[in-house]
Design a protein that fits this description.
The complex is a heterodimer of chains A (166) and B (570). Chain A is mostly helical. Chain A is built from eight helices and three strands. Chain B folds into three domains: 134 residues, Leucine-rich repeat, LRR (right-handed beta-alpha superhelix) (Alpha-Beta Horseshoe); 163 residues, no CATH class; 225 residues, no CATH class. In chain B, the strands form four sheets. A 16-stranded parallel sheet of chain B has the order 1-2-3-6-7-8-9-10-11-13-15-16-17-18-20-23, sandwiched between helices. In chain B, strands 19-21-22 form a three-stranded mixed sheet, with no helix packed on it. Chain B has a two-stranded antiparallel ribbon with strand order 4-5. Chain B has 570 residues and is α/β, with parallel strands linked by helices. Chain B is built from 17 helices and 23 strands. The termini of chain B are far apart. The chains are: A mainly alpha (166), B alpha/beta (570).
């Protein structure tokens, strides 16, 4: 089977299985184009990803490989074991999402660029979780923001939306 | 990580719109409010929200929170989905409740032009009554309905008014008005559950959203209403494909044929929870012209069956050519069903209040339902005579295509578990020869009352050797006799639920690893309490039965009714 190499924006190469690569729809689409133009060539397919740094790419590929493994397990496991498997997947995803806000931002951007719907879902869910239940001050603290609204602007937002903090 | 900006908050504001929408739709109204006031970028984000979800508690300890929502929505032109929950405590002053409903109406009105999906859950534990004047005031509901009618692009409306008697006791007129005013409405669900999830719940949220988002559909497709009276002037739209009416408060006073007379596209009909007078059966014959297209029919009529005479069958045989799934509470109360042929019927769920009523089952099966493959029977039992078990097996004789039999035995004590062996022995004694294709038997024991002591099949320890009554081994032995005698030659799968390992003192899960003892079986499952088993019921019955197969028939029947009259049933 042909090797697939994903090349990060700093030139670092990562070999990935076809099954895992197919989870990235952008890569899958590029592969189709390359296959069509090069025919039955057995040379490794090199897919340049100028918008993704090496570190983020590693993390994304880790997700794709693990999801592919989970998918195979789900297909092979009897119905009685599906609940256990679901718990395993959830635990792995929770561990996977133990990243800084900055890392999470890059993961969202990469998941969007590479078009990995399941990773995008997971990341946006994690992002929402960091906002949920927080006050404006806590949101600022979580995301390292300084207050950017002047008292007048804040009043304008309150007035235009007519939201009043309790 | 490479590429770090060191200013994550500002970088976040550069996220693509699609990702932002995914984040926003996971946040409720209060989170959006906090986000908006945290910084300029996030304030811009919150204005992009297309889905707003909010919940409020009345009395409003954070004064004016519903008003805040209304004001936020005043400038929101892209909100397509709005979901609001409002829970009111007992003893909420009338004026405050009235005002809250008015503010809610205002919130709906503000985003009416863009709204496609609206979900409102209004829970209240007291009636909507003005105690000063001792009068009910439906004004709040009226203003809310007027606002909803302004949502002219609405495709799905779900509203739960709880049991607010002053708000609405009869949804008939309101439903008629909404159908007339909302030309794009595909789904209308008007429920009245006070707490928690509504029951019965025939349609999953995913299914409903799928219908509501189908751009090729026109006209109301799905109607689910609680407490809908059959007013003479109301006829449901012809476009309807799914109708579920649950009546807790009203008797089945008039024939429902008039209500459904123009519905010639109906695929699923659920008529559940109806009260019916004790001496007269509901006239279901008027439904048959409409029922010709039905794929699923659920009829649940609560009636004191002891006072009923033997049902008179319709003179002419009727045919329901497309019916695949039938669930019925008392076959005897719907006498017309006894003379109906269903050539495509493959699944049937039936409640047998007494084993003596197996004669009705036999009458029905004699009509010839050549594709009936799966039968679920729920019956209550205390100690029974063996001949009654024989009658049950005898009734199954016409069901020659039966492949799967699920028996749900509802019990208050352990004796019925011990009688399962007798039930199976009765088939042996009868010399039943007609169930040549029956390949799967599942026997479920369920407690009638939640406070009843749990009843289980027993496994493990010395029970196997002793073949003790109530043990899984005894049931297996009885089944083995049936197979080897050629009564059930095709039997390959058995499921017993729930099982308890007396030796280990714990619930028993999974397969029985004893092929020598049960050589004819390919699969035997001893499921423990709380197990989720199978998914066979995903084939059209949807959430009425669901994937929790062990409770399938129980839920199918229980979900259809308000309560049991156990004395009547015993």
């Amino acid at each position: 089977m042909r090797n697939i190499v994903l090349r990060a924006n700093d030139g670092a190469d990562h070999v990935i299985s076809v099954a895992a690569a197919s989870l990235c729809k952008t890569v899958a689409s590029l592969l189709q184009d390359l296959e069509a133009s090069k025919g039955e060539d057995t040379d490794p397919l090199i897919v340049p990803l100028p918008n993704v740094c090496n570190c983020t790419l590693q993390k994304v590929l880790g997700f794709c490989e693990q999801q592919r493994a989970f998918d195979e397990l789900c297909t092979a496991s009897p119905a009685a074991q599906q609940a256990d498997l679901t718990r395993q997947i959830q635990a792995w995803q929770m561990e996977y999402m133990q990243v800084s806000t900055d890392e999470l931002y890059h993961l969202v951007m990469a998941a969007h660029y590479l078009n990995v719907p399941r990773l995008l879902d997971l990341c946006t869910d994690a992002m929402a979780e960091r906002i949920r239940g927080k006050s404006p001050a806590q949101v600022r603290e979580c995301f390292g923001l300084k207050p950017s609204l002047s008292p007048e602007e804040e009043e304008e937002i309150r007035r235009s939306n007519l939201w009043a903090l309790n | 990580m490479n590429g770090s900006t060191g200013r994550p908050g500002h970088a976040l504001q550069q996220l693509p719109d699609e990702a932002v929408q995914l984040i926003l739709e996971r946040l409720n109204f209060r989170d959006l409010k906090a986000l908006s006031l945290s910084c300029k970028g996030f304030a811009a984000w919150s204005k992009m929200a297309t889905r707003i979800q909010a919940s409020f508690h009345i009395p409003d300890t954070e004064r004016g929170s519903i008003r805040e929502l209304a004001r936020f929505l005043e400038g929101a032109h892209c909100v397509t989905r709005l979901g609001i929950e409002m829970e009111a405590e007992d003893g909420v002053p009338y004026l405050e409740m009235q005002q809250s409903i008015q503010e809610l109406a205002c919130a709906v009105r503000h985003c009416a032009p863009s709204l496609r999906i609206l979900r409102l859950r209004l829970f209240q534990t007291t009636s909507f009554r003005d105690y000063e004047t001792d009068a009910f005031h439906p004004d709040g509901l009226h203003s809310l309905l007027v606002s909803i009618c302004k949502c002219t692009h609405l495709r799905m409306l779900y509203i739960n008014t709880g049991l607010i008697s002053g708000l609405c006791t009869d949804t008939g007129d309101a439903v008629s008005m909404l159908c007339a005013k909302l030309p794009h409405l595909l789904v209308l669900q008007w429920r009245m559950a006070m707490y928690g999830p509504e029951r019965p719940n025939h349609f999953s949220t995913a299914f409903v959203l799928n219908v509501a988002s189908n751009p090729t559909l026109q006209g109301l497709q799905l109607l689910q209403v609680d407490n809908f009276t059959f007013q003479d002037h109301v006829a449901l739209p012809a476009s309807l494909r799914y109708v579920a009416i649950y009546n807790e408060a009203f008797e089945l006073l008039r024939p429902i044929g008039a209500l459904l007379k123009v519905c010639r596209n109906l695929e699923e009909l659920y008529l559940t929870g109806y009260q019916c007078c004790d001496t007269q059966r509901p006239d279901m014959s008027t439904v048959w012209p409409t029922a010709q297209t039905l794929r699923i029919l659920v009829l649940d009529v609560l009636q004191d069956i002891k006072t009923l005479a033997f049902p008179a069958c319709a003179k002419d045989e009727q045919t329901l050519p497309n019916l695949q799934i039938l669930a019925v509470r008392h076959l005897c109360t719907v006498g017309h069903l006894l003379n109906v042929r269903c050539p495509d019927l493959h699944t049937m769920v039936l409640f047998l209040a007494s084993l003596e009523h197996t004669k009705f089952l036999e009458l029905f099966l004699r009509q010839g339902h050549g594709k009936l493959a799966s039968l679920q029977v729920l019956f209550y039992t205390r100690s029974r005579r063996k001949e009654q078990y024989s009658q049950f097996w005898s009734a199954l004789r016409p069901a020659q295509s039966l492949q799967k039999l699920q028996l749900v035995i509802s019990a208050t004590q352990a004796e019925p578990v011990k009688e399962v062996g007798q039930l199976l022995d009765a088939a042996y004694d009868l010399g039943l020869q007609s169930l040549k294709h029956l390949s799967e038997i599942a026997i479920y024991i369920d407690s009638i009352f939640t406070e009843s002591p749990p009843v289980h099949f027993l496994t493990g320890g010395d029970l196997r050797a002793k073949d003790a009554p109530g043990s899984a081994q005894q049931v297996v032995s009885a089944l083995g006799k049936l197979v080897t005698a050629g009564v059930l030659p095709a039997l390959r799968k058995v499921c017993l639920y729930p099982c308890w390992d007396v030796a280990a003192g714990c619930s028993r899960d999974g397969q029985l690893p004893s092929p020598a003892a049960v050589p004819y079986l390919e699969c035997m499952a001893l499921h423990s309490p709380g197990d989720r088993t199978g998914g066979e019921w995903g084939n059209g019955l949807r959430s009425m039965v669901g994937s929790d197969d062990a409770k399938a028939a129980m839920r199918a029947i229980e979900s259809l009714s308000v309560s049991y009259d156990v004395e009547e049933l015993m």
